């Protein structure tokens, strides 16, 4: 059996970045953490890449409803460039339209208490998991 590596999923936000990781078989995505979007964010990502034995990253790309890059996309592209430069790792851009809405709905469907649903970190983690799961399902 070959040594299977995981995929990291990222929901980029101006304040917080939601992080998810696949299982080694790349079937299921799970939200694992939220990191502050600060000057140390790339180092935080590098630590997670090593900790979870990641060989690829999927970053949610904010597209508008027509499928075009929005204003936020430039900020995400800068972030992706930094990560690629530091890690020399494949970074896939994946359409993240409506993932935050889906994250809210999923938490409601799971009957998560309102206070927990209003925790932005919970939403960011769930959104990262949904982005990564979307990518895994598309493969």
Overview of the structural elements:
With 139 residues, the protein is an alpha/beta fold. The protein has a single domain, classed as Nucleotidyltransferase, domain 5. It has helices spanning 41-51, 71-87, 99-109, 114-117, 120-138; strands spanning 6-11, 16-22, 29-36, 54-61, 90-95. The protein has a five-stranded mixed beta sheet, with helices on both faces. Strand 2 (16-22) and strand 3 (29-36) form a beta hairpin. The mean pLDDT is 87.
Q: For the largest beta sheet, what order do the strands appear in spatially?
A: 3-2-1-4-5
What is the CATH class?
Answer: Alpha Beta
Helical/strand content category: alpha/beta
The largest sheet, given as strand count, sense and whether it forms a barrel, is: 5 strands, mixed
Mean pLDDT: 87
Q: Total helix count?
A: 5
Order of helices and strands: EEEHEHEHHH
Report helical residue fraction. Answer: 40-55%
> Which architecture does the CATH hierarchy give at level 2?
2-Layer Sandwich
The whole-angstrom Rg is 14 Å
* Domains (count): 1
Q: N-to-C terminal Cα separation, in Å? A: 20 Å
CATH homolog superfamily: YqgF/RNase H-like domain
Strand content: 25-35%
- Total beta strand runs: 5
Question: CATH topology, which one?
Answer: Nucleotidyltransferase, domain 5
Shape: globular
Low-pLDDT residue intervals, each spanning 5 or more residues: none
């Amino acid at each position: 059996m070959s040594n299977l590596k995981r995929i990291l999923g990222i929901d980029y936000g101006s304040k917080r970045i939601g992080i998810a990781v696949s299982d080694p078989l790349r079937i299921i995505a799970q939200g694992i953490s939220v990191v502050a979007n600060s000057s140390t964010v790339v180092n935080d990502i590098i630590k997670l890449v090593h900790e979870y034995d990641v060989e690829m990253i999927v970053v949610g790309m904010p597209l508008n409803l027509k499928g075009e890059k929005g204003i936020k996309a430039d900020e995400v592209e800068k972030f992706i460039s930094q990560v690629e430069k530091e890690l020399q790792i494949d970074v896939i851009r994946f359409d993240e339209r409506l993932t935050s809405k889906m994250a809210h709905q999923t938490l409601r469907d799971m009957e998560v208490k309102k206070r927990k649903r209003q925790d932005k970190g919970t939403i960011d983690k769930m959104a990262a998991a949904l982005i990564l799961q979307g990518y895994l399902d598309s493969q």
